[in-house]
Write a structure and sequence with these properties.
Elements: H1 53-56, H2 58-88, E1 94-97, E2 101-104, H3 105-131, H4 149-165, H5 172-184, H6 186-194, E3 215-217, E4 234-239, H7 249-256, E5 258-262, H8 271-275, E6 281-285, E7 297-299, E8 304-306, E9 313-315, E10 321-324, E11 336-338, E12 344-346, H9 358-361
Antiparallel strand pairs: 1-2, 3-4, 4-5, 5-6, 7-8, 8-9, 9-10, 11-12
Helix pairs in contact: 2-3, 2-5
């Protein structure tokens, strides 16, 4: 047998083979079974609605109502505890709480009570919605942003229906405790704002100077006598007892810093300045009335003193009135005299607040 093919025998070609699954000479649809087309995005629909126990059992609804009310009441109690913590715990009290360790009792109590107050309202609202409000699924077609009057009327009607179905008017205990929790919670913010820092009261209007306070040299710490201040010289003083390093020293010296200059009494133009001086020794605030810089540049021939920050110039011989610059008013003067021991002392505090004019309007 020969395996070779004769010249007249047809060799099957791939292009002449019948299509797989279809007999040669038939159309693809002939004799085949067609499957139904399936929509891959078909709406599966909603399962059958299952009623909650609260929908069919009023006793269970009452239990849920009491649970919601308890959560709102817990929020109210926590808010009261938040406010009470400010009174109960000093700011520097440290306690040990496992596992946090040693922490501030005030911070811990504030954080816990405020967290419980917010949690009580949130948990109560969630439990209310899940157990007492209607859980019927509503389907609404999308609409344009600008609603038609009919749609707006429908929304209002649905809102009224939702208010009715929420049983807000019926469940008085839930409603009243929610009102209480929401009314008390903002008090936490009021307390926090109040605790941002101590009120200034009149501390910005008063300094450490008072009647009988001896003037002490700011550099040497020695008590000053009239002979220590010579004509043409400029000295700086502070109240006796105000020592560097003490608590609040920086705040006090910023208000009480004093500048002493001696001028011939005949050269003092302002009568009050002369009356408040001692043998021509004038005591003025060292704090510029513009933005509070330290005035320190003195010109003895003209009796002018200059602030180095913005060049405000004051005439010390004429009540320290402003001659030039942005300062708004003269430097406050301190009335001085000499005590029985021969030291310079104050006769009271400054007659007006020191520093920028802002504090006078404060």
């Amino acid at each position: 047998m020969s395996s070779e093919t004769g010249p007249h025998e047809d060799v099957p070609d791939d292009h002449n083979l019948p299509e797989q699954g279809h007999p040669q000479g038939r159309e693809p649809g002939e004799g085949s079974v067609s499957l139904p087309e399936q929509d891959p995005f078909a709406n599966p629909g909603l399962p059958a609605h299952q009623h909650r126990v609260q929908d069919v059992d009023e006793a269970a609804a009452k239990r849920s109502e009491r649970t919601v009310a308890m959560l709102f009441t817990l929020s109210m109690l926590a808010t009261v505890g938040f406010i009470a913590s400010f009174v109960a715990f000093p700011a520097d009290k440290i306690v040990y709480i496992w596992p946090a360790g040693h922490i501030s009792a005030l911070n811990f109590s504030l954080g816990m009570t405020l967290g419980i107050a917010l949690l009580g309202i949130g948990a109560g609202a969630v439990h209310w919605a899940r157990t007492l409000m209607t859980d019927t699924e509503l389907i609404q077609e999308r609409h344009s942003i600008s609603a038609e009057p009919e749609v707006r009327a429908q929304v209002i009607e649905e809102f009224k229906q939702g208010a009715t179905e929420s049983q807000f008017g019926r469940r008085r205990l839930v409603r009243n405790t929610l009102y209480g929790a929401m009314a008390l919670l903002p008090l936490s913010g009021v307390v926090l704002l109040r605790d941002l820092g101590p009120l200034p009261e009149d501390k910005l209007r008063k300094t450490a100077w008072k009647k009988g306070k001896v003037l002490v040299n700011e550099n040497t710490g020695l008590k000053l006598k009239p002979e220590d201040i010579t004509v043409g010289s400029l000295a700086f003083a502070k109240p006796e007892g105000l020592d560097h390093g003490e608590h609040g020293w920086a705040n006090e010296i910023a208000k009480a810093a004093l500048m002493l200059v001696r001028i011939e009494p005949a050269d003092i133009k302002d009568k009050q300045s002369l009356d408040w001086s001692h043998e021509g020794i004038l005591a003025y605030s060292k704090i510029c009335t513009h933005i509070g810089c330290a005035v320190s540049l003195y010109e003895q021939q003209t009796h002018h003193v200059l602030c180095p920050c913005h060049q405000s110039t004051f005439d010390l011989a004429d009540g320290a009135r402003v001659l030039f610059g942005p300062a708004g008013h003269p430097l406050p003067q301190l009335k001085i005299s000499v005590n029985k021991d021969g030291f310079l002392e104050a006769q009271g505090d400054f007659a007006e607040p020191v520093g920028p004019a802002f504090w006078e309007r404060g």
